[in-house]
Specification:
The protein has a domain of 26 residues. Helices cover 0% and strands 0% of the residues. The chain contains no helices and no strands.
Length: 42
């Protein structure tokens, strides 16, 4: 556990923890790009 000091004494070094389901939310902002025709090698 990387942030043991922020757990406020609930856990100790070497203690086995039971994994639970994690929820992750990612918000991405992708600006709209104009439709350009790109000709490669022609």
């Amino acid at each position: 556990m990387a942030n043991l000091e922020s757990c406020r004494g609930r856990y100790t070094i070497g203690q086995c923890l039971q994994r639970q389901t994690r929820l992750s939310l990612t918000i991405r902002h992708v600006p709209r790009t104009s439709k350009l025709q790109i000709k490669l090698g022609r």
